[in-house]
Amino acid sequence: MFPKKIVPPINLLPFKKGGLAKNAAITVHITNLLQKQRFMIRLCKALMLYGAPTHRLEDYMKTTSQVLEIDGQFLYLPGCMIISFDTNSTTSDGAELQLVKCGQGVNLWKLHKVYKIYKAVIHDLISVDEANNEIDSILVEQNLYNKYLAVLFYGLASSMVTPFAFGGDWVNIPISFCIGICVGILQFL
């Protein structure tokens, strides 16, 4: 009637606290230490540049360093990330400090692409060299929408939210459209 053997539950979230993150490592794509550090710096820059949640940046970097088997500490301050790589082979004192500073913005299309690369490296689907090349191509490619269309979207979003958020009438919608256009123009100056 009762099962004789009790099987412990399987941890389906291996990268959460208390999971298999300590045992996770790259086994298929092996690269050198400097390429791994370059990937982590580029990943950090791309995540900051395209609007990753700031409360998750340190966790992304810690998980990446654990999987890539790099000893590192990370400190996020608004607008910059301080990365300390603890290595005995690259410098004489055993620690290398990097400051990643870039302007923050929101570009959800590029953030999605960067996050897919992050997940592919974490799960060892692509090598660090390939990921470096893909992040470099994302950093230099054009935005999904051109500036003129984005300014138009600012105006449309401003005018569509007016009746619901502020109780505006039909008279207020064109005024809020013009204000949204002005905000969009100021965004791209």
H/E series: HHEEEHHHH
Which oligomerization state do the chains in this entry correspond to? single chain
Low-pLDDT ranges:
1-13
- Helical content band: 40-55%
Give the helix/strand class: mainly alpha
Share in β-strands? 5-15%
Q: Supply the number of helical segments.
A: 6
Characterize this entry briefly.
With 189 residues, the protein is mainly α. The chain is built from 6 helices and 3 strands, in the order H-H-E-E-E-H-H-H-H. The chain folds into 2 domains: 108 residues, no CATH class; 41 residues, no CATH class.
Structure overview:
The protein has 189 residues and is mainly alpha-helical. It folds into two domains: 33-140, no CATH class; 147-187, no CATH class. 48% of the residues lie in helices and 11% in strands. The chain has six helices and three strands. The protein has helices at residues 33-49, 57-67, 108-122, 128-140, 147-165, 172-187, and strands spanning 72-77, 80-86, 95-101. Strand 1 and strand 2 (80-86) form a beta hairpin. Helix 1 (33-49) runs antiparallel to helix 2, helix 1 runs parallel beside helix 4 (128-140) and helix 5 runs antiparallel to helix 6. It starts with 32 loop residues before the first helix and ends with a helix. Mean pLDDT is 84; it is low at 1-13.
